[in-house]
Structure formats: C-alpha cells, structure tokens
Write a structure and sequence with these properties.
Oligomer: single chain
Strand order of the largest sheet: 3-4-5-6-7-8-9
Strand content: 5-15%
Shape: globular
Order of helices and strands: EEHEHEHEHEHEHEHHEHH
Number of strands: 9
Length: about 280
C-alpha cells in the first residue's frame, strides 16, 4: 500500500483509508468483515466519528487485536467542542473504540464555540497522550487561517473535506492552502455518495477506458485521481470485503499525464463556490 507523510506529523499513512459514515445501517458482521479485509490489504487508516451512531463500536470490534497496525481517527461535533467538552467527548470515543489513544482527533466542522477553546482541549488531550495529533474537517481557507493563527505552524495534522470527481471545489484554495502549510488533505465521499458517474455517460466511458488500461474499475481510477497529489488521502466506505480489496488495489495505480488531463476535461472543477461544500 502506497503511503505518505500525514501532514507535519511525520507518520506514514496509506493514501487510501476506510471511512465509516452510515456503516452501522447495514449488517454489523459484513461491516466488520469489510474493515478487516481492508486492514489486511493495507488500508490501516480508519476514520470514524462520535456522531456516526454505532460506527465507533463497529470499528472497535474490527480492530480488536490490530490496534498497533491502525492509524485511528475520530471526530468531535462542534456542540461538544469547548475545552472541557473536547476532553469528555474524546474520552467517550476512546471507551467506545476500546483504545487508550487516537492517532488523530478532528473538529467535525466549524461551530459556535471559540476555536481557541477547542484547540486548547486538543492540546490538553495531546499532552496527556490520549491523542497523538489533531486536525479539522470541513474548514474553508478563512477558518484554516484562524486555526493556524491560534495554534501556530505544524500543529494542524489534516483537513478532511468532501472530494470526488463531481465535487472538486477544494482544489481552488483549500488544497493549495493545505499543501503550503504542511496539512494533509483527506477527501471523504470519494464516490459521490451515490452519485458516481453513470457508465453510459461520456465521463463514465472515459473512466471505463482508463480502468481497462490499468486492469481496474472506474472506482479505482477515481481513487487514483483523488490521491494523485503529494498531500492527498481518501477514505472510501464500503461494507463489502470484495470492494475493500478493490479500493486498496487502487493505491498502486499511477495515472499518466494524458489520463489525468482526460479526467480533468470530463470532470472539471468548475468555479470556486462562495461557501465550502460539505455533507
């Protein structure tokens, strides 16, 4: 599994990991089997959150006996993001995940509590060894600038944002900001949350042609495109072990310049939106 440094943490993390949003809505056994298949295939970056209902307990079961192999991430909702609230929320996540620490802990989206309070809570957790790093999610450039002013350089491990072929808004400003400041860019919903290009569409045919050349699927081509830049990661979710193996194999796909240009032409990033898209 191809890996790269997770922002300024210096930790080598697989470019393709595993998301868990809505994973608890399907059969528990299948979800656990898919996570374990992904881990076995090298997708050891596991992302979850306190608001994902039962996902943390599913992850706990999936990583039992494998904790040292996993780069484990969870997220706090903004309503809990006071200095003390961050600590309480993290400790609750640790109990559900049956672990003593998180590799990274994120603020799920900007909220109404002062960011100074949230970051102070993160630093308390980091000092006590309950988290090894912290980051952000769904932050646009202005919010990232504010976090950087408070925390100082090389404290923000990552920014997790929506990023798929049909939603490339982060390429305008957020992705370059992260690259300049040593922050990992983690793309969620890389298959568009049910809106993956139709095989009969012009873009779908382009993906199919590139996939055939690489011995993969259109989904694999999408993952390769979304992780083509040095600071990018992606966290597809699946509850099928066979799909987990396909996702992991995409890390070895290297698209050439002509293929990237073709994908870019059929899935343009479009104009910069006024607000950062998010789910």
């Amino acid at each position: 599994m191809r890996a790269r440094s997770f922002g300024a943490t210096g930790i080598s993390v697989p470019v393709i990991g595993q998301g868990t949003w809505r994973m608890d809505e399907t059969g528990r056994a299948a979800a656990i089997a898919a996570l374990r298949a992904g881990i076995d295939a090298g997708m050891t970056h596991i992302d979850t959150a306190e608001m994902y209902d039962d996902a943390e307990s599913i992850v706990a079961e999936a990583i039992a006996g494998l904790r040292e192999e996993v780069f484990l991430v969870s997220k706090v909702v903004p309503g809990n993001a006071t200095r003390r609230g961050v600590v309480r929320a993290c400790e609750a996540s640790l109990r559900r995940l049956k672990t003593d620490r998180l590799d990274s802990y994120l603020l799920h989206w900007p909220g109404h509590h002062p960011l100074e309070e949230t970051i102070a809570g993160f630093e308390d957790l980091r000092r006590d060894g309950k988290i090894l790093s912290w980051g952000l999610s769904n932050f646009d450039v202005e919010d990232l600038d504010a976090a950087l002013r408070i925390a100082g350089p090389y404290r923000i491990a990552c920014n997790q944002v929506i990023y798929h072929l049909g939603e490339r808004a982060i390429e305008h400003a957020v992705l370059p900001w992260c690259a300049r400041n040593g922050v990992a860019l983690v793309g969620y919903s890389p298959f568009g949350s049910g809106e993956f290009p139709d095989p009969s569409s012009a873009g779908g045919r382009v993906l199919a042609g590139i996939a055939e050349a690489h011995g993969t699927t259109p989904y694999g081509v999408a993952l390769a495109f979304l992780t083509r830049l040095d600071n990018t990661f992606t966290i597809p979710k699946t509850v099928r072990a066979s799909r987990a193996l396909e996702n992991a194999a995409a890390a070895d796909i290297r698209l050439n310049a002509a293929e990237i240009a073709l994908i870019d032409a059929h899935f343009p990033r479009g104009p910069r939106p006024r607000t950062l898209p998010m789910l």
